[in-house]
Amino acid sequence: MKKLFFITYGGGHANLVKLVAEDLNRNTDYEIIILALTTAYKELKDQLKNLKVQSITDYMHLFSSDIEKIRGYGDKYLEDNYQKNGNVSEEETINYIGLSFFDLVTNYGINGAEKIYKKKGRRAFEPLNAAKKIISFESPDLLISTSSPRFEIASIRAAKQLGIPSLQILDFFENKYNLKEADYIGCSNDQTKKILEKNNMTNSNIRAVGQPSIENTVRLIESIDCRTLYKKIQINPEKPTILVATQKLMEFSNDVSMGRYIDKESVYLKLFDEIAEAKKHDNFNVLLRIHPASESKESYSRILEKYPFIIFSNEVLDVQESIALCDLLITHSSTVAIEAACAKKKVITFKHFYDIDHPFDEFTKDPFIFMPDLENMSKKIIEVFIMKQKNHSESFMPKNSLKNIRMFIEEILN
Predict the structure, then answer these.
(1) Which of 218, 241, 310, 374 lies 20 to 30 Å from 27, alpha-carbon distance?
(2) What's residue 275's pLDDT?
């Protein structure tokens, strides 16, 4: 029986691994083991009852000869990295941080490791030695990860050293600062595949497979009965609806892997000023959905006070319901834009005051309607409402993504 070893962090990466692992479990006889890092462990342990989901703690017996040093480093930096009410246990935090820091010390010595950690924090971690020991212990026929840095990229490099083939399933779009070093790459669409090949960013075997997370979300959106939602939030179904999906905004220099958070309030105030101007000419409903994990309603209090026509959708709708209700989505670079576009919604993306270039080139191209700044956004909104919606070709996001990934894995292993 062939063994697959998945390694993933939490959030969208864990959801992607969950969908792929469930499909493989239903349709193949592969042995599947998942190393779920940080927040991914609780997410996947709760959802994948029929699969073996491991944490870093489950592998600590492999490091018994250095356990005192590892736990000592973990204890030392626990305060920087542990949240009492978070989804990662204190034990797992100590082991994850300790093991990662121990690897840093092995490579740079204690003084060098402390200096690097002080400058970069967790971004300094790339525990190749730890990953190598864990992968060697599991001895899989194929290592599968997503496009995260730190432990995931270390695992790809470790697998190469061990002569074990590896597959990376990438995020939605190409980001040249997410390292792609696996032997095989599964990307979202032909456009991304061409960019990877054109830029010679990888010598891997690349295939456009689609995105299971997006396909799953679009199915949910298309199954929603909007009539009940109109009544639920008491908006006029005869009027078109704009959904603004926000996020923390960053300013980058030339390196999208390094940035700093900027004053998002001034950006979103300008955006809503433009929406208010457009509303004078064409009355429509306006929903605001903020990023549920990294933003708070309080940070939008000035905007909500200035424009009482805004409905704060986080309190009454989930993200799929919000997309289902909208005719037009406006966002900077939220993945909600991809879900909305695939659900045949019109989507405007924009560059903010602090952007040198938009961090994701794909958001500046069809099917997205890109605004190079926020000036004249009001005119663009009016213009977009009277535009016919384009039918996106399957090349934007191939269908049957889970089957595509499964067939890719079967080919790799045969």
Answers:
(1) 218
(2) 97
Which of 192, 172, 226, 166 lies closest to 6 in space, CA to CA?
166
Q: How many CA atoms lie within 13 A of 170 on its CB side?
A: 29
183-209 pLDDT, tens digit per residue, is 999 998 888 888 888 776 556 799 999
- Joined together, the tokens standing for residue 95 give 């082991």
In 310-385, beta strands by DSSP E: 310-312, 328-331, 346-350, 369-371
Model confidence, pTM: 0.81
Determine whether 404 is exposed, middle or buried from the number of CB atoms within 10 Å of its CB (0-12, 13-18, 19+).
Answer: middle
Q: Residue 388: which residues within 8 A CB-CB, separation 6 or more?
A: none
Q: Which residues, 6+ apart, have CB-to-CB distance to 368 below 8 Å?
A: 337, 341, 347, 348, 349, 362
pLDDT, tens only, 40-62: 999 999 999 999 999 999 999 99
The C-alpha atoms of residue 333 and residue 360 are separated, in whole angstroms, by 7
